[in-house]
Amino acid sequence: MVRKKLDKDEKVILDSYENEEWESVKTKKNVTKYQAIAQTTLKKDKRVNIRISERDLELLQERAFREGIPYQTLMSSVLHKYVTGIFSEKGM
User: Fold this and answer.
1) FRET label pair with 45: which of 17, 18, 63, 76, CA 20 to 30 Å apart?
2) Predicted confidence (pLDDT) at residue 72 exceeds the cutoff of 70
3) Distance between CA atoms of residues 67 and 75, nearest Å
4) Is 11 helix (H, G, I), strand (E, B) or coil?
């Protein structure tokens, strides 16, 4: 196996995976959930380009990974919730 240079966290994850410490979470409920997310993602009809700090992008990607969704989907969801009033600024 050809490996690129991994950082400490990536090595821990890879070692854990190679030691078969991971379990599939494929359940009917999860499959249905991710299919719905994929279908919603595919319905997007406008593209927007934004510039954000590298650190903010990394944090978004980490959060999306924990949620099990693409980071673009997370960004879209947060923006949707904000503009529809589900999320609001603190103190407003």
Assistant:
1) 63
2) yes
3) 12
4) helix
